[in-house]
Amino acid sequence: MSRTIAILGGTGAEGTGLANRLARAGEHVVIGSRDAVRAADAARKLREQIGEAARIDGTDNASAAAQCDVALLTVPFSGVAGLLKELKSVWKPGTVVIDTTVPLAASVGGAATRMLGVWQGSAAEAARELLPAGVSIAAAFHNLGAALLTGDAAVECDVLVCGDDDAAKKVATELAGKIPGVRALNGGKLENARIVESMTALLIGLNIRYKVHSAGVRFTGLP
């Protein structure tokens, strides 16, 4: 199946990591950014790391969204509403959006380990309200830190996929399975994203306390 995957906000550490993993899996990836030049530069650097045969391009967020079949939101939570309002007339019908964002805030002088209250319940539910009819959403990849996504080593982490649209969840599950070592699990309805998102704050705290960069989540007792 030929498809284009946009990584919106893809020049950040998380976006670049996901672009790296999906391109290594043979997907056509388009990195989106507010700055098209910066996106093109990020794409060039990844091609140099992976190999020039890797299908990675870079452009502005609107152009990336307009051409994609699947879009991963990797912008900071504070920028999601503005971006989705900007893109409202751009999406192709049938596009699947996968929200990876987490509503985090930092205490003064500290790390971003505090969850912000979101009226809709979760970042993913807030994003759903800003998408037009015909564009579906799932929530996934929250607990895969950027450090886990660099290079090509196997990742010891489960990915919980939440959503109310089965087709969108299927796409997110398939993409998660393309990362070596990752197991995608059905996290239930989109409202459960509020639980999964909060686990990110916990993992960040564990990384700080144990002085590591690779804390992940595994669920036991499942087939």
What's the layout of helices and strands?
Blueprint: E1 4-8, H1 13-24, E2 28-33, H2 36-50, E3 56-60, H3 61-67, E4 70-73, H4 77-87, E5 96-99, E6 104-105, E7 114-115, H5 123-129, E8 136-139, H6 146-149, E9 157-161, H7 166-177, E10 182-186, H8 193-210
Parallel strand pairs: 1-2, 1-4, 2-3, 4-5, 5-8, 9-10
Antiparallel strand pairs: 6-7
Radius of gyration: 16 Å
Q: Name the helicity range.
A: 25-40%
For the sheet with most strands, the description reads:
6 strands, parallel
Number of domains: 1
CATH architecture: 3-Layer(aba) Sandwich
Helix/strand/pairing class, anyone? alpha/beta
Could you spell the SSE succession in H and E letters?
EHEHEHEHEEEHEHEHEH
Tally of strands = 10
Strand content: 15-25%
What is the averaged pLDDT score? 94
The CATH topology turns out to be Rossmann fold
Fourth-level CATH superfamily: NAD(P)-binding Rossmann-like Domain
Describe the protein in words.
The chain is of the alpha/beta class and 223 residues long. It has one domain (4-210): NAD(P)-binding Rossmann-like Domain (Rossmann fold, 3-Layer(aba) Sandwich), CATH 3.40.50. It is 39% helix and 19% strand. The protein is built from 8 helices and 10 strands. It has helices at residues 13-24, 36-50, 61-67, 77-87, 123-129, 146-149, 166-177, 193-210; strands spanning 4-8, 28-33, 56-60, 70-73, 96-99, 104-105, 114-115, 136-139, 157-161, 182-186. The chain has a 6-stranded parallel β-sheet with strand order 3-2-1-4-5-8, with helices on both faces. Strands 6-7 form a two-stranded antiparallel sheet. A two-stranded parallel ribbon has the order 9-10. Strand 2, helix 2 (36-50) and strand 3 (56-60) form a beta-alpha-beta unit. The two termini are 28 Å apart. The mean pLDDT is 94.
